[in-house]
Amino acid sequence: MLNGIVAKKRQEVKRRKQEKPLVDFKEDITKGSFTFYQAIEQAPWALIAECKLVSPVKGQLCAKYTETELAKLYAANGAIALSVHTDQHFKGKLENIAAVRAVTNLPILRKDFIVDTYQIYESRLVGADAILLIAAVLTDEELEEYLEIAKELGLDCLVEVHTLEELLRVQKTSAALVGINNRNLKTFTTDIGNTFALLPYCSSNLVLISESGIKTGEDAKKLQEAGVKGILVGEGLVSADNVGFMTQEMALRK
């Protein structure tokens, strides 16, 4: 599934580069100020709440709210930052970032499959404060290049790993913020035990985020006690009966 998504993404980016070449907007980009990383580092516990309506595996997750309504709920109930999908597999679009920015001041992560430097410039143009870099789809050289371009633009990077091999690769780069994804990319099942398994191999200077499969405040508390700085949660929030209450629980406010 991941290979198929990435192949389609490369074609999509190729079309966008033809429709709107980088040279046409590069000078319009305003440098960011690394607010995403700062918000996470300064918080005692960081909930990155995802404005996620659809899963490519499970389909529709939330029909009750729009992305902007979720953003307002999250901001009011303890989220430190937001994750906004811009990939079509999640029914996302690039315009969602500006829409969410209009209703909240929380830092925004662009959640997408970044496979081209063009997308990094594009992300900052539309107002993202951070981007997701997935180690599984990038070479070591691409990771370092993308980290450097993002730094020049004032963008933070959440570098995502799924396995020990990917973690060791990423630790050789300049990445400071690392997300341990608990989803098995072969079976697409989730198990937060993946975070606990990889923690002993993490450098002490990394700021660590656990992603996927986090369902309760108890899960969040266990991860915090293990030394994780925060969590990125989508499905566990949007599928809750009371999204606001669950946000408080995941933010360890309850």
Explain how this protein is built:
- This protein has a single domain (2-14, 35-250), classed as Aldolase class I (TIM Barrel).
- Helix 3 packs across helix 11.
- The protein is an alpha/beta fold.
- The longest helix is centred in the N-terminal third of the chain and has 18 residues, at 2-19.
- The protein is built from eleven helices and ten strands.
- The strands form two sheets. It has an eight-stranded parallel β-barrel, surrounded by seven helices.
- It has helices spanning 2-19, 35-42, 67-76, 95-101, 117-125, 140-152, 164-170, 193-198, 217-226, 235-238, 243-250; strands at residues 46-51, 54-55, 59-60, 81-85, 108-111, 130-134, 156-161, 177-181, 207-211, 230-233.
Please identify the top-level CATH class: Alpha Beta
The gyration radius over C-alpha positions equals 17 Å
What is the average of the pLDDT values? 93
Largest sheet: 8 strands, parallel, barrel
What general form does the structure show? globular
Measure the end-to-end span: 37 Å
Number of domains: 1
User: What name goes with the CATH superfamily?
Assistant: Aldolase class I
The side-by-side strand order for the widest beta sheet comes to 1-4-5-6-7-8-9-10
**E-strand count:** 10
Structural class: alpha/beta
Question: Percent of residues in helical segments?
Answer: 25-40%
CATH topology: TIM Barrel
Report the sheet-strand fraction.
15-25%
Number of helices: 11
Order of helices and strands: HHEEEHEHEHEHEHEHEHEHH
CATH architecture assignment name: Alpha-Beta Barrel
Unreliable spans: none
